[in-house]
Amino acid sequence: MLIIKDLNLNLGDFSLKDIEIHIQKGEYFTILGPTGSGKTLLLETISGRFRIDKGEIIIGGERVDYLHPAKRGIGYVPQDYLLFPHMTVRENITIGGACLKDDIIKLLKIERILDRYPENLSGGEKQRVSLARALVRNPRVLLLDEPTTALDPQIKRKIWLELKKVKKNLSLTVIHVTHDFEEALFLSDRIGVINNGRFEQIGTPTEIFRRPKSRFVAEFVEIENIFKGSGEGHYILIKPGFKLKTKEEFHDNVYIAVRPEDVIIKMKKEGRENEFEGEVVEIANRGAFYQIEIYVGINLVSLMPRRDFERMNFKVGDMVVIEISPEEVHIF
Amino acid sequence: MKKISLISSAFLILFVLIILSGVISLFSKTGLYGLKETLVSREFIFAVKFSITTSLISLFLSLIFSIPMAYFLSRVNFPLKQIVESIIDIPIFLPPLITGLSFLILFGGSFGKFIERFGISFLFSPLGVIFAQFIIITPYIERSAEIAFFKVNKRYEFMGKIMGLSDFDVFRKIVFPLSKKGILTGAIVGWSRAMGEFGATLMIAGATRLRTETLPISVYLSVSSGDIKFAAGAGVLMVIVAVLTLFIVRGVIKENAYH
Asked: What pTM did the predictor assign?
C-alpha cells in the first residue's frame, strides 16, 4: 500500500536519511522514536509538506512525492490537532468540500459537538474531531502524529481502543508516530524505531521488544540490563566472576541485553545455567510490579510481579539468587 | 516596594495631568457655544467631510497594498529582505514633513509633468492629500498585518492544503480570518493617523481653504489667521476621534475570540 524507497531529505539543521519502508494494506505501522528523532518530519514529508531530495513515495501503486498534499490520498491527524479555531467542528470537518459521514460521526461519537468551536472541546474530543476530519476524506493511508501525547493516561487508553476499533471497522492502513513504547506495543502490527533521521530497526513488536538490534533500540524499549562483554562461542564475560551462557553464538566484543522481567529472582540455587548469588540493593514499588536491583558483581535490574514479591518477602541487604535463561540473553 | 510604588504613581498622575491639561485647555478655549458655532461653519463641515473621505480612500488603498505585501513578507525569505523592510518603514521614522518634501520634489519635477499628461496631479490637489495619507499610514498597516500573519501557525496552511484548499482559499478561509484582529487594529490606527496627517499633506497638497482642507490643515489655517476658537473647535473634534479610536482598538485587542 505504501512504499518509501531510499527517501532522503535535508533541511539544513536536520535530515532524513535512507528511509525504506514497505507497508501492507491494512497494516498498523508505528514509527517509534524520541523527541527530535525525525518522526514528525517523516510523517509531514509523506503528507507533502516538504519536497524530498531523493527517493520515492508510492501510495497504492502511484508515485505521489511530487503531488499536491490533497492529491496523495492521505489523512493526517497532527499532534496538536490543528483544528481551525475560527470554525465549528462541522466546518472543520467539511472544509474543502468534504461531506459529514454519519458512520464516522457515530463511530467517533461527535454528533453532539458538531456546532461547537474547538476552544470549547476537551483534549479527547479535539482528537476525535481531528480524526473525523481525516477519515471523511476516505484516505488510502491514515497518518497519526502522537495522537495521545496531550491526553491523560486514562483517556489515552480509551483512545487506543478507539483507534483499534476505527482501524478494524474501516480497514485502514495506518502510520502512527509515537515516543510511547507501550502505545506502540498495544497498537502496532510492525514498529520502526527511528533515531537521528534514520531507521535503526523495523520489526514486529516482539522482535523490537525482545531482540533489539542496537544499543539505542535496547535502551529505548527500556531494557535496563545492557552490558559490554567479550568472549567466544556461547560464553560471554561481563566482569570477572560474572560469565553468562548465551543461546546465540558470537565472537569478540559484543553488547548483551537482558529484559528486567527475564532476570528471575529466587531464594536458592537449583543447579541451572546462569545462576548467580547477589545482594538486594534497592526495591521500588511500581504498582503491579516491583523493580529490584541486585548486585552480582554488576548491578542487575529485575522486574517482579507484586504477588511474587510479597510471597518471597525479601528486603534490601538480603542475599538472593538470580537466574537468566540463555535464551533471554540477547546479543548485538 | 511601597516607596517605589508611591514615586511611580506620582509620575503617572503627573503625566496624566499634563495630557488632560492640554485637552481641557482646548475645551476651555472653545466653550460649548463656540464649539456649536464651529461645528456648523462651512469650513468645518468641509474639513470633516474631506478628512473622512480622504482618510477612508487612503485606508482602502493602503489595505489593498498592505495585505499582499505583508503576507509575502511574513512567508517568504529572500536576499535583501531586511533592506526592503527598512525601506517600507522609512515613512515611520522620517518626519512626515520630510517625506512630503521628497514627494513635492518628485512630483514637481519631470516625473510630475509626465503623469500630468495622463490627468494625474498630486501637487496642491485633493489627490495629493490621499497620496500623503497613503504614504504615511501604509507602513503602519503593513507592519501590523505582517505581525498578524506571522503569528498564524504555518501548519494551519499546510492542513488547509491537505483538506484540498487552493492557495487562495487557504489565505481567504484560514490565514485571513485568523489574523483579522491584527489587521483590524492596524487599520483603525492607520485611519486615525490618516485623519490626523498634517506634515506630508502640507508639503504635497498644500493648505488651501475648501480644497485641500483636512481637519489638521483647517486647524493650521485658523491658527495662522488668528482664529483660535475655530482651531480649538476642530481640535476638540479630533480629540473625540482619537479617544474613540483608542477605545475601539482596546476593544479589538481585548476580544480574544476568532469568531
From this structure: 0.79
